[in-house]
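Continuing the batch. This is chain 6 of the set; chains 1 through 5 are on the previous pages. Same settings as before, nothing changed between runs. Recording input and output for traceability.
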Amino acid sequence: MRASAVRGGRERGATMLEFALVVPLLLLLAFGSAEMGLAWVANNRTEGSTSTAARIAASSGSLVEADRSVLQSLKSSLPQGQLDRLDRVVIFKPTNAGGGIPDDCIKAVGSLDESGVREQCNTYAGATLQGAIPADLGARDDSWAPAHAQGPAVWPA
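Output for chain 6:
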């Protein structure tokens, strides 16, 4: 009888050891899955917001309020947490073969410089979306989509 009592104690110890080895892996898998799900949701929301803003920009063309409409769209569709991490919005006219942002329009991360490049782009710091977006945003624009263009949307300009 004593041998079986010793064996039962060993089995309980082995079970506890297996439990101690398996639980951290299961927790890692569970929390990793949850984190991936949250990242996917955030990415999906960002893609949807930028897609909507791009559609607004394309349909607004060279209207004075085009940039303001794009920024307002981003502000209303992104949650506050993502707006807080937003560094820059660049509204540009694709001129290179790949359709990417012109090199002159790229600013350093954290830069508050909002100067655009004539006939290429307008840049806005992420802080612009934190408060009220100025009503004269498009009217004071002197880089791209000039203020005198108030006609129907034309793309490309």
